[in-house]
What we know:
The protein has helices spanning 3-21, 31-44, 63-66, 69-81, 155-158, 163-179, 193-198, 210-234, 238-261, 330-333; strands spanning 47-60, 82-91, 96-107, 110-115, 118-121, 126-129, 148-152, 186-189, 202-208, 266-273, 279-289, 294-304, 320-322. Strands 1, 2, 3, 4, 5, 6, 7, 8, 9, 10, 11, 12 and 13 form a 13-stranded mixed beta sheet that branches. The chain is an alpha+beta fold. It is globular and about 55 Å long. It contains ten helices and 13 strands. Helices cover 39% and strands 29% of the residues.
Amino acid sequence: MKLRPALATLPLLTALALLGGCASPLAGKPADQATRLVLRENLQHASYNFTGEMGFSTLHGSSEDDAKPQLRYTIDEVARSTKVTVSGAIDQAGKRMELIPAFRFERRNLQASVTLPLELNLQDFSLLVDPSAFDLFVPELHSEQPRFVRFQLPADIAGKIPVDAMLQALPGLVDEGYGKVAPQAFALETLDATAKELGASYQLRIAMSPQQENQVLLHVLDGLAKVVTQQAEHDGRPQDGKQAEQLLQLVRELTQSKTAEQPLSKSVSHLYANRRGQLLGVNQSVELNTPQLRGQAYIKLRYSNHGKPVFVYQPAAASIIDYDKLPKPQWLKGLE
Length: 336
């Protein structure tokens, strides 16, 4: 008789335990904190495949261009017919990234595409490039197909870059940067068709001005420069730290100049995340409103295979040739 109350409450306790185990880290958080958590998670566990597309919904030139109907039509049609698609994989533990951009021009009766596979390896600061798309213009590449060309930083330069410390600091710096943005820039949205397609449980919105975006960027760059400076001082190379500070100052000046030139441009991003806080996709629209360009651009990114990225290319040593050993065309020899 005494067992019946306990048995009656068992299903309820089991359900509560399951719900507690499945509780989302985003549950109950304000939009700004939830967004920061998703972005931090995406950087701390950067191990996934991604695909994306970038292009223009509409594009117009200057007011002088708009006064010429044929030129206005051509600018808009060419822009909307041109897309950049991208796919790839990131393996943070292996410090390896594969990037396969494809530049496409598509009309009803005309299609053209150029693909340039790349692989960046931060273990040895090397970049592999598949140049086969360009061998028609560089005959010296004919004998090297299907080999990748490797570009590599000199060891004395690569040895001064504290990549491990920078990667470790990056998630926190991005989190801090977004933490400086007003909470009103973030919102939790009702799930749309893209969210349902991706199986997302959360849809978050970021709407920032160029000034706010640059504020985040500069905070991250300041932090990374500090990491480089501290490591240089620790290793007895203070001059390298000064060079990092000089480079940061140059980036600051360029960023401020860009902001001054594009005061009316703005972007809105929609982030899609699952219950675990993993980023599943991003839809971003960018409004251009400058004297030279006016229009609407878009960026779509999708993330998959979290924790188990799949690399398309697995080049063996025999499939790689270093740039300095590559036969050079005559016109390039004259520049060396």
